[in-house]
């Protein structure tokens, strides 16, 4: 195998582990916030009041969705390579597409919530 | 079925075939290989199987025994024949030749692909290398060196079933012993050979190979070591 292909495989492998580490932190914060926020009922006003206009929450969710956009498609690529007959170049294309969809939708949602805020 | 008979179903044929059943007298301290040998000598001389040393050294007698890859010369019937039943198949993930015999060529070619042979740079006129038995790298190397090439790990590994190009636990374990052999000069060439998804990064680390290795080796640990070293080499730009 060519050295560049080996490099790409290695970087993807590393990217998946690093993004997993970030996700552990993000998911912990996310779930903890949900549990705290849901006390006494949940309303969209309350969510917007907390997250809307907050640069800290915006940065948090941008990091969160970017990590998902890195982590999930690499895993999907491995699963498709091992479990399906789809040709490798098509798998790579599908994974990149999947990453873009998650990334674009996630970032849009994060900015959308930010924009609803008071500031 | 009487208590002093074992019911033995054996795969007959190659990729296409069927099970044939034999009744074999139960003996004390009988191994699975003894059972197969009895069948071939007393009941059916057309049965093909492979063995050589009969004492757990040569690695040629591995088969699938009641669904698990085992060395048969050191597997006692009493340990594995649940309800007096033995079902014997050839090893998984290797082309079937006939009956219990598989073609191990690809398995061993992968050792060569993983740069599994020693390459030194000393001649007979040089002094012997002195490496203390306490040397940490020597200890790592020694821990994996007793592989007998039986293929039980390889036949158990799911990743090979999914990706036939994956080098597999035995070849990667071998490479790791050489990465830690200070006399060997293959260095980065070997790391490049075992890097990537068909090499160490393909391993799922679930230790099926460790579970089945009759020599109690730890190929998963060896592969984890290779992951560390190949990633370091890639980050330093050494594999380009
Ligand atoms: S730990 Fe790795 S090499 Fe061992 S059986 Fe699992 S995938 Fe195969
Ligand atoms: S690592 Fe163990 S199971 Fe695998 S070939 Fe060597 S001795 Fe057999
Ligand atoms: S016959 Fe040699 S290891 Fe079993």
What would your notes on this structure say?
The complex is a heterodimer of chains A (119) and B (240). Chain A has 119 residues and is an all-alpha fold. Chain A is built from four helices and no strands. Chain A is elongated. Chain A starts with a helix and ends with a helix. The mean pLDDT of chain A is 93. In chain B, 43% of the residues are buried. Chain B has ten helices and seven strands. Chain B is elongated and about 60 Å long. The model of chain B has no long low-confidence stretch (mean pLDDT 96). Chain B has a five-stranded mixed β-sheet with strand order 2-1-5-3-4. FE2/S2 (inorganic) cluster binds next to loops of chain B.
- CA gyration radius of chain B, whole angstroms: 20 Å
- CATH-derived topology of chain A: 3 helical TM bundles of succinate and fumarate reductases
Head-to-tail CA distance between termini of chain A: 54 Å
Number of domains of chain A: 1
SSE order and pairing:
The complex is a heterodimer of chains A (119) and B (240).
Chain A: H1 3-38, H2 44-51, H3 55-83, H4 88-115
Helix pairs in contact in A: 1-3, 3-4
Chain B: E1 5-13, E2 17-25, H1 32-43, E3 62-65, E4 68-71, H2 77-80, E5 85-89, E6 96-98, E7 101-102, H3 105-113, H4 136-144, H5 152-156, H6 158-162, H7 169-179, H8 188-194, H9 208-212, H10 219-235
Parallel strand pairs in B: 1-5
Antiparallel strand pairs in B: 1-2, 3-4, 3-5, 6-7
Helix pairs in contact in B: 3-7, 4-7, 7-10, 8-10
One iron/sulfur cluster is lined by residues 156-157, 159, 169, 203-209, 219-220, 223 of chain B.
């Amino acid at each position: 195998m060519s050295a560049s292909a080996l490099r790409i495989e290695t970087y993807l492998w590393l990217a998946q582990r690093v993004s997993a580490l970030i996700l552990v932190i993000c998911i912990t914060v996310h779930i903890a916030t949900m549990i705290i926020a849901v006390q006494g009922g949940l309303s969209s006003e309350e969510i917007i009041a907390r997250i809307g206009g907050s640069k800290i929450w915006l940065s948090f969710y941008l990091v969160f969705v970017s990590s998902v956009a890195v982590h999930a498609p690499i895993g999907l690529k491995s699963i498709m390579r091992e479990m399906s007959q789809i040709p490798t170049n098509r798998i790579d294309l599908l994974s990149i597409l999947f990453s873009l969809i998650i990334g674009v939708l996630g970032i849009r949602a994060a900015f959308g919530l930010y924009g609803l805020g008071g500031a | 079925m009487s208590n002093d008979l074992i019911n033995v179903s054996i795969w007959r044929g190659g990729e296409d075939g069927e099970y044939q059943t034999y009744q074999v007298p139960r003996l004390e301290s009988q191994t699975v290989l003894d059972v197969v040998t009895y069948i071939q000598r007393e009941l059916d001389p057309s049965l093909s199987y492979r063995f050589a040393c009969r004492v757990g050294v040569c690695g040629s007698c591995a088969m699938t025994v009641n669904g698990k890859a085992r060395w048969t010369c050191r597997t006692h019937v009493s340990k594995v024949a649940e309800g007096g039943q033995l079902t014997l198949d050839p090893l998984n993930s290797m082309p079937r030749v006939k009956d219990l015999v598989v073609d191990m060529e690809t398995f061993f070619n992968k050792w060569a692909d993983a740069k599994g042979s020693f390459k030194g740079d000393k001649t007979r006129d040089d002094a012997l290398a002195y490496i203390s038995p306490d040397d940490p790298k020597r200890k790592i190397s020694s821990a994996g060196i007793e592989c007998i090439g039986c293929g039980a790990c390889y036949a158990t590994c799911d990743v090979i079933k999914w990706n036939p190009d994956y080098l597999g636990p035995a070849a990667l374990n071998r490479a790791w012993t050489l990465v830690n052999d200070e006399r060997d000069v293959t260095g980065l060439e070997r790391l490049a050979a075992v890097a990537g998804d068909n090499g160490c990064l393909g391993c799922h680390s679930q230790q099926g190979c460790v579970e089945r290795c009759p020599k109690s080796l730890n190929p998963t640990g060896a592969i984890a070591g290779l992951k560390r070293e190949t990633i370091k080499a890639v980050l330093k730009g050494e594999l380009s």
